[in-house]
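Archive entry. Fields below.
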Amino acid sequence: MSTNELAPRKVPQVRTKYRRIVTDIPVPESIPILQKLRQFEPVSMSGQPPILWDRAEGIQVYDRWGNMWLDWSSGVLVTNAGHGHPKIRRAIQQQVEHGLLHNYCFPSEIRAQLTEALARVAPEGLKKVFLLTTGAEACECAIKLARTHGRKVGGDKKIAFVTFHNAFHGRTLGAQMAGGIPALKDWIVNLDKDFIQVPFPDGFRGPDTSFDGFLNALKQQGFTPDRIAGVMTETYQGGNASFAPPQYVQKLRAWCDEHKVLLAMDEVQAGFGRTGKLAGYQHYGIVPDLSTWGKGISSSLPISCVIGRADVMDLHPAGSMTSTHTGNPLCCAAALANIEIIEREGLVDRAARLGAILLSRLHAMKARHPQIGCVDGKGMVAAIACVKPGTTEPDADLAWAAVQESLFRGVLMFSPVGFGGGAIKICPPLSIPEDALAESLDVFEEAFASVVAHSEVA
Ligand code: PLP
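PREDICTED_STRUCTURE:
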């Protein structure tokens, strides 16, 4: 069954504390609704496993027909505090009752509370916060600020923006030009020549992990530092959950300082405890000039932000860097409650502790399966790269088969199609109980072994 097939399949029943599968999948009664989505939404929206989300709580996603999945997606790394946390629901309800649903850039107390809270959790040096709605919007803003700063310190030639191969920063025009996946930006055709990419030093797809790799790639593309305004990298590369070596990032930080280049860390995926640190860039022992955040900032409603150096954030005069839905009061209420939960429930340390278990189980799997080329991650995010054995060639079919087989057994992941070519991403809410993590890893191991056995027979 591909993501586009809607033929119900008989699957064994499952009933445990954390998982329940009691129907064919997809559920026959869900098919008219799935078809309606196919009819009225663009095809691009049909890439996920064909189950109909009805409600979600904690680590579980429910449909209307009695099925319950243990969620390894966090709804694409959003629900760090768990789905529908009661305190977040209450905070949203209270804000609704209070009676302010929108504020644009007019001053409001709840926006003041959230920007103060975000500045408090950010490191010294990053104390101004611009609230936005999506991760792409935050990354676009970082590009705008870096170019504005570049022109200020180096004139009109200092506008180039450096990002990394395989990087993902969102789907709007600037964010896609900054992205490092050529297939995603084919449609642009006349790409801005001042957006350039260099290899990401993950040691697997980008084998050269030395900082010389960065300098050489700039040289090969004919760029000298006086032309470069900014460098942006995902704190870890989302497609494969891969990190750069800390020494590389520290050298990058020093190089940026030396050449008046702004360093932006894209924390949209990594932030708010996902990697076992509140900000993922803390793993590198550096402070960026700009940081972009989204997803896990509220564990629910759409809100994002740029947190940065005051002198950079203040480059644009009053009224010239705004957004209609900046700091929407309901989203602010959700984010404030989320930050309190992450701190009170110790979710950052919890992610670090459980992440060690997750990673060690995945490494043990890799030792048994030559189809796993690489295991990466930290905290509650990990990815395995499915490959043709003995090569680094991605095996996207195997990845999809393993995701689907896990779904039939009650563990939900998002589709690996289009992301990281063959990578399977594991990113449950940080609040996942230890026994639920162990149970879901058992299920995944069984599912993976079963699809490998089938592919060997075929
Ligand atoms: N940056 C990173 C690292 C992301 O992973 C994503 C989304 O997956 C984005 C930016 C874009 O965020 P959004 O989809 O909210 O625009």
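CURATOR_NOTE: The chain has two domains: 4-81+346-457, 86-344.
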